Structure prediction request, 174 residues.
Amino acid sequence: MKDDKRIGRLYEGLTAKETATLVYSHLSKGNVSEADRIRDLVPLKVYRLPDPDHTDHFERLRRATLYYAMERWRYQAHCLAASGIVVHFYQSENEQDQERSQQCFEAWQVWETRLLSLDAALEAVCALHCVDIADLRRMAGVDGPYQVLGLGEVNPELVAEMTQAFDDVFKEAQ
Prediction:
């Protein structure tokens, strides 16, 4: 008993990492009683933290917002680039420029379809997870749904794919 107290005093000044290393070392040598003795000397700490369910759900909302914002602004940048090129080549008499203009016009349609499908997927996921779509858009820095220019249309296959991607983001933090 007296030896236990002396040995205990040897361990008292050690850091948490040092005691963990000692416990690990003693366990590796099969000295379970000494590892237990050291473990008994490690002070207990009580931690306070926010409700994990709250923190997890907030993290899922944050990830969904980031996902939406990145996709929305990326698609919108592609639309803007394609429309700029279309306008640039629109009045050209050069046949090659006309071809480029047509290709960019088609690309513009593709990106607008993606934007419209993204908004449809966002609406579906927000309804599924009881999230106000306006709140998520505000947090993403977006005023509202994409303003349709009439070039693209919602693609149900894209909506299903994007809805799954959103849902995966919501489940990722679990």
Notes: The CA atoms of residues 137 and 144 lie 7 Å apart. The chain has two domains: 2-41, 52-172.
